[in-house]
Amino acid sequence: MTRVVILAEKPSQAKAYADAFQIKEKTKTHIELKPDDTFPDGATITWGIGHLVELQEPHEYKPEWKKWKLDQLPIVPDQFYEKVSSGKWAQFKTVKHLFQQADVIINGTDVDREGSNIFYSILRLTGVKGKPIKRLWINSLEKDEVRKGFNQLQNNEKDLFLFDEAKARQISDWMVGINASRLFTVLLQTKGFSGYLSIGRVQSPTVYLIYQRQKEIEDFVPEPFYQIESYFQADKGTYKGIANIKETDKAKVQAIMDQHRLKEKEELPGTVQKVEKKTKQQKSPKLHSLSTLQSVANKRWKYSPSKVLKTMQKLYEKRLVTYPRTDCNFITENEFAYLLKNLSKYQETMNVSFTPVSLKPNKRYVDSNKVQEHYAIIPTKTVPTTKKLASLSYEERNIYNEIMMNTLAMFHENYVYEETTIITDVNGLPFKTTGKTEVKRGWKELFPKPAKSNQEKDSILPDVYNGEGVKAHVHLKESMTKPPKPYTEGDLINMMKTCGKLIDNEEDVEMLKEVEGLGTEATRSSIIETIKNQQYIEVKKNVVYVTDKGITLCEAIEGTLLSSPSMTAKWESYLKKIGSGQGSKQTFIKQTSQFIEKLIEETPNTLGHIQVKQTKGAEQNNNKEIVRCPSCMTGSIVDRYKFYGCSNYKEGCNVTFPKKLAGKTLTPNMIKTLCQKKQTRVLKGFKGKKPFKTALKLDEEFKIRFDFKDNLSKTND
User: Is domain 296-411 in CATH 1.10.290.10, yes or no?
Assistant: First the structure.
């Protein structure tokens, strides 16, 4: 009998795998499958809960590393160790027990480097060695695709390289985050900064790029420029034209007008010199990657990138769309075949009808050579019923409709329009007019028609002919240069992906192109959420602004590699080499250690010019006394932004309390009650597998514990 154990990344993924087979038994920690053709002796599916395992904290290596002091830097352990994440011991013990019993272990986590990291970090901490390991590699959670994937399991050679890549990334990010955050925070606190800075290899240059754009806007000085414009009255309507002149010197433009005897407020004769009409076609958009979908959803519905990814994950788990974290815009002929087979059903579901232009794959959308780990985001073979669609949330329906219409557009006709160019002569000065007339909507009929802007209304031109006489009303037009537009949340995704355009060094530009900018398709939205949560940026009406705290960060890291996308590009470039077996994890970590040592040596001499700004929001509450410390009794418990802690921490009092516990925010009043009375009333709003209520108590070591004994007493929210 062969005992097969499958590790999924999370419970929802495990359920999707189990639904493709016959279930023998379900428990809180695993699912047993009945024997079948794929698993003759059955199989057991268990799961992580995201990152079941994480790197240890500095103080778990050395107690003195708990204090934020310059003389403790650099913090670089000789060897890095992992631990079970807080609150996840029960699940880890189950996984460990099942791995110990297994004859074959299947890695069923997400098919990317972080999935590999999750699986092998858990496996390593269980201590289980020497067992055969297979890899499930699928792009869809549909039952057919799941069964097909388990029948075509891959070996784990590529996965081991990806694990080395992920671990190198994780350890190096830990080292940069721990050391740079403490270094800059402590140095700035000597200059009056009252908060804490979180610094990261990707998040910091992202904030800096937003800061640069904000500075460009703030420093922008509008300048006037001058053109010559004319309104024309023809037999069949009016139109507007502009001369090919653009000057910052008004006198020069006035001289040209005088030269051609053009006077404002006078009606002048004009002649249509040339009318040129060209029929143009526009192909449907490429299939969606995660970033293109995030960009479209932000423009259309103002959804944040994070909301789009969460919504996509739900649709993926409902088996309606393919794998969401893809950076690819292409599919293979296999996916094209099932899309073609379901085409009429898809149209019926979406209540649209058109005759497909071609039933053959087009290289614009279908190219196996451009598909690596994942193909583009498309609907699955599962065509949802009306009832299923109705059960989707508003956001899910919007995103699903966009994916479906984007995919159907591939089969539709091109959008066809006629572009007209008119050259009109007035006293020897030519004026150019361009306009567009829609001939055939084609694929655009699948999408909502946008409201016409004034510019689009102006672009509809009257029918004129060569040699036609027109009446001209010429004027000198004054305009002002405009600053760059501020970023929206949707723009941030594209900015991170294409930030090479903002770099001068050609070698770095090429490298940023190669690694596709800052972050990865899977991580960009979480990076944006992180810098929002750190209060470096704020979003108002979808426009992104850098806060005072963010400005302090950017001024501090300015001129260092921490502000440069190029550093991240170089890191990602080498990480990719590790993932393909051409680079060394040890070399990468060693180079990161050398970078940190250099940063610690140079930074104290670079912060002299910084004027610390008083940050807004939560920072104003920092160091506000809440209650006397129950441990040392001389210090006070104060708000430390991400946690509550004793003001005597420099003297060695290490009492801290979390801001959040089991999904519930702990208010200063709750902390005050705990410190004074050692127990709260029963509180609602905690989250486990189900919401629960409990009292909180302070134990002898000043740690907060749940106290379920009093759950019948009066509750607080």
Answer: yes
Burial letters 283-293, b for 16+ CB under 10 A, else e: bbbbbbbbbbb
Query: At what angle are helices 524-533 and 203-219 packed, to 10 degrees?
Result: 70
pLDDT classification of 142: cutoffs 50, 70, 90:
confident
Q: What is the mean pLDDT of the chain?
A: 88
Task: State the CB neighbour count (10 A cutoff) for residue 612.
Answer: 19
- Please provide the CATH number assigned to the domain covering 169-219+489-605: 1.10.460.10
Residue with tokens 């799941």, as numbered in its chain: 146
Which helix (H) or strand (E) segment holds residue 441: the answer is none
Are the CB atoms for 58 and 66 separated by under 8 Å? yes
Q: Would you say the CATH fold of 296-411 matches that of 224-283+415-480?
A: no
- Taking the C-alpha atoms of residue 480 and residue 477, their distance in angstroms, rounded to an integer, is 10
In angstroms, rounded to a whole number, what is the distance separating the alpha carbons of residues 501 and 510? 10
**pTM score of the predicted model:** 0.77
Angstrom distances, CA of residue 458 to CA of 128, 241, 434, 436: 71, 11, 10, 10
* Plot region of 261 (φ>0 → left; ψ -120 to 50 → alpha; else → beta): left
H helical segments located in 459-564: 489-497, 506-515, 524-533, 548-557
Full DSSP string of 320-348:
SB--SS-----B-HHHHHHHHHTHHHHHH
Pairing mode, if any, of strands 104-108 and 133-135? parallel
Omega of the bond leading into 486 within 30 degrees of 0 (cis): no
User: What's the CATH number of domain 4-52+88-155, 3.30.450.20, 3.10.25.10, 3.30.9.10, 3.40.50.140?
Assistant: 3.40.50.140
pLDDT tens, residue by residue, 578-591: 988 899 999 999 99
668: tokens are: 């200063």
The one-letter amino acid code at 183 reads L
HSE-up of 673 (CA within 13 Å, CB side)? 14
Q: Are 427 and 243 in contact (CB under 8 A)?
A: no
Q: Which fold has domain 224-283+415-480?
A: Topoisomerase I; domain 3 (2.70.20)
Cβ(446)–Cβ(412) below 8 Å: yes
Segments making up each domain of the chain, as ranges: 4-52+88-155, 169-219+489-605, 224-283+415-480, 296-411, 623-716
Cα–Cα distance between 119 and 51 in angstroms, integer?
9
Residue-level pLDDT at 715 = 39
What are 250's two structure tokens? 């008004």
For residue 164, what is the DSSP state? H
Q: Going by C-beta distance under 8 Å and a sequence separation of 6 or more, which residues neighbour residue 513? A: 500
Residue type, 66: K
Structure tokens at 459: 């672009």
Closest CA to 280 of 457, 434, 438: 438
Q: How confident is the model at residue 690 (pLDDT cuts 50, 70, 90)?
A: confident
Does 465 score more than 50 pLDDT?
yes
Residue 476 in contact with residue 249, Cβ under 8 Å? no
Q: Are 296 and 415 in contact (CB under 8 A)?
A: no
C-alpha span between 99 and 406 (Å, rounded)? 43
* pLDDT tens profile 275-303: 999 999 999 999 999 999 999 999 999 99
| Lowest-pLDDT choice from 219-233, 386-400, 445-459, 597-611 | 445-459
Helix (H) or strand (E) holding 625: strand 625-628
Contact 187, 480 (CB under 8 A): no
DSSP per-residue string spanning 385-424: PHHHHHTS-HHHHHHHHHHHHHHHGGGSPPEEEEEEEEEE
Assess contact for 63 and 46: CB atoms under 8 A: no
Q: Residue type at 83?
A: K
In which element (H, E) is residue 107 found?
A: strand 104-108
